[in-house]
Design goal:
Blueprint lengths: L2 H8 E2 L1 H4 L8 E6 L5 H8 L8 E6 L6 H4 L7 E5 L4 H8 L3 E3 L7 H7 L5 E6 L7 E3 L7 H7 L2 E6 L13 E3 L5 E4 L15 H10 L8 E4 L3 H12 L6 E7 L1 H8 L15 E6 L3 H7 L5 E3 L2 H4 L2 H4 L5 E6 L2 E3 L4 E2 L2 E2 L2 E2 L6 H10 L4 E5 L3 E3 L5 E3 L1 E2 L16 E4 L2 E4 L5 H10 L6 H10 L10
Parallel strand pairs: 1-10, 2-3, 2-6, 3-4, 4-5, 6-8, 8-10, 11-12, 11-15, 12-13, 13-14, 15-20, 16-23, 20-24
Antiparallel strand pairs: 7-9, 16-17, 18-19, 21-22, 24-25
Length: 444
């Protein structure tokens, strides 16, 4: 096949390509590094010609020009499935809206319930077989492109080519227009250095990990701290099966801890759905036969996760109440992130032979005014529940790890108070007594 001729016939400038967008359309920006900055800028320049164009994306790091150019929301309305820090600020400014979801269901949503008119996505350059790799956004892009009436790819030579798996690439025959970008550097996510609290939390989790375990790490200082501890530990032959691949895995690989040799399924392959991190991370996943990209409908399927013996899932959370309900995505009604894949991996790891799921947080935080607040609270009021109490498993703070599975309300209250910040334990006990979830014999 003469793919080069087809490529040239579909090649457009960004301004030409975005002319296909009409008022009222749903436009898809896919996820994280799949965000198409050149097309986004060109679409924003059509603002005054268009009305009520709805855009969907998630974990985009900005700036998103269609959101920034239209404070009235008359022309463009941006919606996110999972807030990055930048998207959170857009929501705070009433420039964006959050859409609740569970990551494994995203393809199902598109297939059965959603309209998608135009998909715009950044891809790696076409290979000799006519395929464009979705690269770091391979977990979500194909299901969106499949539903979209028009598909525009924005080629960036800096996008890694992540091998499959399946649905990690799109063929030129499925593409309507091709836009060549100026190859801007990919966003690099630099996590803050792990705090002393992060390291203490990680030290409590490390003994639960055995040789040959498969590990899922979330985003943030604590998971990175755990990656560093694992890299320096005596553990060996660990596996990767993760929604999001970050630099914690690279640290483990560089020290010879991550081999994927003992995985129960996808042996010798580190499985990912998304990748966000440093340039070194992108170079590591690029064209690497030891890495396999899959759609999140597969990666996050609890039945797939559960097939890994000794599956260890580590995710962050924001707060927990004395009943074991966990909030990982909001402060009150203010959206911070999203449900993402937390429930997916918690469910799958808990069904794995030898598996364990940890939700981690510091015991307290300081407000902007310097006031110390407890992350363990008597009960929630307005916060979004990410993990219901019926599914709560291991909860960790810098004061220890407790297991809530199968525990009564008074046992949960006792356990959670034991890992709360000491300054708040007495008032939490009083609250538990008032809520009738405390045994007098508990008090020490």
């Amino acid at each position: 096949m003469d793919y080069l001729s087809e490529y040239k016939s579909k090649l457009r400038t960004a301004k030409e390509a975005v002319k296909c967008v009409k008022s009222g359309d749903w436009v898809e920006y896919t996820s994280n590094l799949g965000y198409p900055p050149t097309l986004d800028k060109a679409l924003s320049e059509r603002r005054d010609e268009l009305r009520n164009v709805k855009i969907r994306g998630d974990l985009l790091f900005g700036p998103i020009h269609v959101a920034e150019c239209d404070p009235t929301l008359e022309h463009f309305v941006y919606n996110t499935w999972h807030c990055s820090g930048y998207e959170r600020r857009l929501c705070d400014r009433n420039r964006a809206f959050f859409t609740p979801m569970i990551f494994r269901n995203l393809g199902w949503y598109y297939k059965n319930f959603l309209e998608a008119d135009v998909c715009m996505v950044t891809v790696a350059p076409m290979d000799k077989h006519g395929y464009f790799s979705f690269g770091c956004a391979c977990g979500l892009s194909k299901c969106i492109a499949d539903k979209s009436k028009i598909v525009i790819v924005e080629v960036n030579e800096n996008m890694p080519r992540i091998l499959g798996g399946f649905d990690e690439a799109i063929h030129i025959s499925e593409v309507d227009f091709i836009v060549e970008s100026d190859n801007p550097p990919l966003y690099e996510m630099t996590n803050p250095a792990p705090s002393d609290e992060d390291r203490r939390i990680a030290s409590y989790i490390l003994p639960h990990i055995v040789d040959g375990a498969t590990v899922q790490l979330g985003i943030g200082g604590m998971p990175n701290a755990l990656g560093e501890l694992i890299a320096k530990s005596d553990l060996k032959d660990l596996g990767m099966h993760t929604e999001l691949c970050s630099d914690g895995y690279l640290a483990m690989f560089k020290q010879g801890k991550l081999t994927n040799r003992k995985k129960t399924i996808n042996q010798n392959k580190g499985v990912l759905g998304l990748a966000i991190g440093s340039r070194e991370l992108y170079d590591w996943v690029d064209d690497n036969p030891g890495i396999a990209g899959y759609p999140l409908s597969y990666v996050n399927d609890p039945q797939v996760i559960a097939q890994h013996d000794n599956m260890i899932s580590i995710n962050g959370c924001l707060s927990a109440d004395l009943y074991g309900q966990v909030c990982s995505e909001s402060v009150g009604t203010r959206q911070i992130s999203g449900t993402g894949g937390q429930l997916d991996f918690l469910t799958g790891a808990s069904q794995s032979r030898g598996g364990k799921a940890f939700l981690c947080m510091t015991s307290s935080f300081k407000t902007k005014d310097g006031e110390l607040k407890s992350r363990i609270v008597p009960t929630f009021s307005g916060d979004i529940i990410t993990t219901p109490r019926s599914q709560a498993y291991y909860i960790a703070t810098e004061y220890g790890v407790v297991n809530l599975a199968g525990r009564s309300t008074w046992e949960r209250a006792d356990a959670l108070i034991s890992i709360a910040h000491p300054d708040f334990r007495d008032e939490l006990i009083k609250a538990a007594e008032k809520q009738k979830i405390w045994l007098p014999s508990n008090k020490r």
